Amino acid sequence: MSTPYKIVFAGPVGAGKTTAIQTLSDIEVLNTDARASDEVRRLKPTTTVAMDYGVMKLGNGDQVRLYGAPGQARFDFMWDILTENALGLVLLLSARADDPVAELDVYLTAFRDLIDRTALVVGITHTDAGNRGARQLVIEALGARGLPPCVMDVDARHRPDVALLVKALLYSIDPFAGRDEDAEAVTP
């Protein structure tokens, strides 16, 4: 019998959560995008209002259920619902942000209970067109806040990048996870 696992992707609007889940999912992604009707429409035409949902099938038959949280604070009521029974949090931040550390703090505060119970990895997206120093700023900020600085630059459209985030999350939960024959289970 297969075991389902649950991982939540969070971050601000436009950080790449929907794209990352589409990149990893082995099923058609369920999303709840709606036309943006506020300041978000300057960034993109649609936004997630409830969640994105995809499934990554592992080589051993297990499944990782991928949940994308809406990025806007007005939909934060979904955040607690989506994090219930989650293994951990993948936080995506955009290097294009004016202040990636301020955005980090918003999500650290909002998801602190989950982070304290499980694990956190941070992916910095849009590094090709943004602040190339964003990763280092986030690493330093996590260290200053007493959190492990597991931060990497990722392209949310590139499966190996996003799979590496998931592996890092799993290894931070169980550092010996990759030592058996299932080590190939979370491959791009």
Please give the largest β-sheet. 7 strands, mixed
The Rg value, from CA coordinates, equals: 16 Å
Low-confidence stretches: none
Spatially, the strands of the biggest sheet line up as: 2-3-4-1-5-6-7
Number of helices: 6
Overall structural class, as computed from helix and strand content, comes to alpha/beta
Following the backbone from N to C, one meets helices and strands in this order, namely EHEEEHEHHEHEH
**What is the number of beta strands?**
7
DSSP helix fraction: 25-40%
Mean pLDDT: 84
Gap between N and C termini: 23 Å
What proportion strand? Answer: 25-35%
Q: Shape from CA axes?
A: globular
SSE blueprint:
Elements: E1 4-10, H1 17-24, E2 30-35, E3 46-57, E4 63-68, H2 77-83, E5 88-94, H3 100-110, H4 112-117, E6 120-125, H5 134-144, E7 151-153, H6 159-173
Parallel strand pairs: 1-4, 1-5, 5-6, 6-7
Antiparallel strand pairs: 2-3, 3-4
